[in-house]
Amino acid sequence: MLVHFRQFLPSEQMYSVQINRLTPSNPAIAAVVLGVLSVVWLFGIVAAKLAGDVGMRLLHSPSLIIQALMFIVILTFAACLRRAFPVGSFLVAMVCTAGLTLLLDDRSMGLTPLYFFAIVTLAIRTQGMKLVLLTVLAMATDVAVTAVRGLEPTNNLGEVQTPQHLIIVQIVNVLFTYGMLVAFGLVIAKFRTYSSTSSAAIEQLRQEHEAKLNDAIASERQNMARELHDVAAHHLTGMLIQTKSANKVLASHPDDVQAMLDGAIDQGQRALDSLRQIVGILRLGEGDPDYPQPMIADIPEMVDGCRAAGSPLTFELEGSFTELDSAVQVSCYRIVQEALSNALRHAPTSPVHVRVCRDHASVIVTIDNEYGISTASMRGQGFGIPGMRERITLLGGEFSAGPDGTGGWTVRATMPTSGRIIA
After folding, report:
1. Other C-beta atoms within 10 Å of 119: how many?
2. How large a percentage of the chain has pLDDT more than 70?
3. Where is the domain boundary, 180, 204, 228?
4. Which of 56, 325, 348, 356 sits at 20 to 30 Å (Cα–Cα) from 414?
């Protein structure tokens, strides 16, 4: 019965931080994509070096290309296992990269996107001394492989370099490359941790808001239960008075008894209608009030009180409400009361027009706020509108509250005069 209240709760999609955008559900997706990129990377460098020794050697040695592709397949498979075995996956990637570099005798071809990805993944999934040791091991392996191959005596410009200079350049290159990739991985890891923490906090806030909303609904139902006390007491008192009177005059004035019994029957029917509207879904709480609940006839007094506080209000009352069930009358009063309270709280200088009218089958309550509700001024708990909607829905009516399309704000409730509870 509270299902229609969930529309007032911010959805999980609104609250949730979309971490999955950075974390594909299937780890093989990123691995396969990077594997394809590594193949493209490899052949792109081969095409660029066709004029050199490496390019010509690969071009005339298909078996060498097949071996290189096998290394890339192993690197791709290791990347698929990075979540379950982050350290093992990285070590396999490091060994395969060293083997690929020695096989092709070219460091730029050995360092594929898959290996860069392995370094970033290591920084994301490990931390502390383990990350430091594995990174140092990877850098040492890179330097050792380069030493085994032998340093190039010339740079990209063809200038001859001293061994000392070559060693410094190599160390700086390794430190920069690994440092940049590890730093990138640490940033991603920190963001994921922050996002997870934020998501947990937001989910807790959502649950707390839902709990408060449910408490507010329960409180509203308790209020309605107390109102039921007055509704039943009013009608039953009338029945008792008329039946007792009929009993007293039965012998002396039998002609008057029929009219008294008709009145008692009418009171009983109205009491039954009110009980059917509310009983069965509400429980009467402790602390029953010892004062009568307000009716539609009391709305003008409430409007006058708000007008005396300085709010520009107008009020219209159309139709006859004397035969209206008490439960509907109380609900009409509460709707106007809550709507005016919101208007005074969020738009205190706005002209407000209140209209209560009755047609043959329903009562329509409309509260128009000319200036609308300022979003910046909304500091409440957000339970007023859900409470009004709950009250009207339980009576089988319709409720709406929101902008009217002209800059104002309108609250409208339609209640059937003989409504039945919707369970």
Report:
1. 24
2. 69
3. 204
4. 348
Is-contact 414 322, C-beta < 8 A? no
pLDDT at site 413: 93
Same domain flag for 273 and 303: no
Tell me how many domains the chain contains.
Answer: 3
Spacing of C-alpha 216 from chain mean position = 20
SS3 316: strand
pLDDT in tens, 215-270: 877 777 766 666 665 556 555 666 676 677 777 777 777 777 777 777 777 767 76
| pLDDT tens per residue across span 33-65 | 877 888 887 777 666 655 555 556 666 677 887
Question: Domain holding 394: CATH number?
Answer: 3.30.565.10
Q: Are 392 and 398 in contact (CB under 8 A)?
A: yes
| Amino acid type, 237 | T
The model's pTM is 0.43
Does 272 lie in the same domain as 354?
Answer: no
Which of 204, 226, 260 is where one domain is finished?
A: 204
Contact 169, 152 (CB under 8 A): no
Over range 319-341, report the average pLDDT.
83
**158 lies in the same domain as 38:** yes
The string over 298-325, giving b where at least 16 C-beta atoms fall within 10 Å of a residue's C-beta and e elsewhere, is bbeebbeebeeeebebebeeeeebeebb
Question: 259 is in which domain, residue-wise?
Answer: 215-278
How many H-runs (helices) and E-runs (strands) does the chain carry? 13, 5
Domain shared by 97 and 29, yes or no: yes
Mean pLDDT computed over every residue of the chain: 75
Of the listed ranges 162-171, 273-282, 317-326, the least confidently predicted one is 273-282
Find residue 398's DSSP bridge partners.
Answer: 414
Please report the pLDDT score of residue 12 as a whole number: 43
Residue 231 inside a domain? The answer is yes
List phi, psi (to 5°) of 88.
Answer: -60, -40
Between CA 75 and CA 80, with CA 78 as vertex, the angle to 5 degrees is 115
Is 50 in the same domain as 154? yes
Residue 235: inside a domain, yes or no?
Answer: yes
- Cα 58 → chain centroid: 56
